[in-house]
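Protocol step 4 of 6: record predicted structures for both targets in the notebook before any analysis. Target 1:
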Amino acid sequence: MSAGEKAKAKSEQTKGKAKEAVGSALGNDRMAAEGQAEKSVGDAREAKEKTKDAFKH
């Protein structure tokens, strides 16, 4: 996994988790859903990079 893509994936996951937690705490369903979506994008990016790495070896 390239370092830049790995960092981007972790950043999206962390940002999404935080946004989801704040949204839930405030009772803001839209913000919580946006956070969950951002986290999912980060998870997908990480999975893609891991798959690419598996085929390199």
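Target 2:
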Amino acid sequence: MSKYLEISISRGRFKKIREWNRRRNYYFKAVKLNIKIYIAKLIWDKRRKSVFDIKSIKTVLLLRNEGTIGDVVVSTPLVKCLYESGYTVDLLLTKSSSVAMKYNPYVRHVYEAGDCNNEVFLKKFSHTVAESTIRTLNENNYDLVVDLCLFDTPVHRMMLFRDINAKFVIGFNKWSCINHYSKSISFENGKEHVTKAISLVAHNMGLDFENNQTYDLHIPEAIVREVRKYLNSWEDKLKVVINVFTGSPERNFSREQLSQTIEMLNEKLDNIIIIILDHRKELSMPLPNNVEINPFNSLHHVMELIRKVDLVISPDTSIVHISAAWKKPLISVYKNISDNNDLWAPGYKEASQIIVNKRKISDVKNVPELILNEASKRGVFENGLA
């Protein structure tokens, strides 16, 4: 996996002061969060920790009620592994991410929590699961809840666990004094890929995960036919999907970067069709004749497009992990965030990861050039050179 790092160095006599201020702010934020977690523990934690007994587990609820579509995609190998090992599997997801599991045959039920930002998810005492959903989850009498959140323990977790009332709960890097967690799995955030965390859950349940690490996405045949019909008219062309927008404006490509990337691709190739993903309908700019905006509205149409094209170009977002499901040639662009670059990397040899050290990807002018260099190095365009 190739990485390019454009380094920007903060200068000036106040550099050290700014660094100390940042560290102080992070420290006090962590202290405030820990105080809230301890208060939540006093109010909602169990009196005693349950002794984890794998033999008594038949029903499993996976928690991703903070997650995006990418979080759900990377969890799919565990879902399949649990199902094939004889477990009944349910999921608690956000409303916006639950669509990713709409056609998955290995899930009994998908329940929805309200969407929320990280601030609300981590720091609020109350969760975003409706009372009617909580009653259903409680009545399901789960043997095991798997908390797949890899970072800080959300303040609301103790309340949620009390409401669900499962026999056991597994989590990552949890305080030993929180009795709701029957087992805490050690995981090095920022140093290991997210699939390692998923495999650790399977390992702690005594499951064979070696042959179940591929992301597992399911697309209805009707959608497969629609996308095939759409792409048929360009059967002899090299097909490229470019994703422009993410859930965070700081990770988006700029319109200038998109325009330059398209121009450079067209200079390099004479047999290319480019499909732009613009799910929010935000893009308004003139486009060459060989460039189209994705005409489909559903996530599963996008999945099938990615499955069928020759190259995907995307900033750090769910499209990266959808591409990984089929090991598609991918050029991805990430901001330089130490606890993200390895954890959420594409994670397969057909993908390139460009890392830029700017607050916004759109501030790095040579992103189009870096993308084309990676594509050329990987020989993606060898059969389509002008």
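Step 5 preliminary note on target 2. DSSP finds twelve helices and 13 strands in the chain. Residues 15-44 form the longest helix (30 residues).
Proceed to step 6 after PI sign-off.
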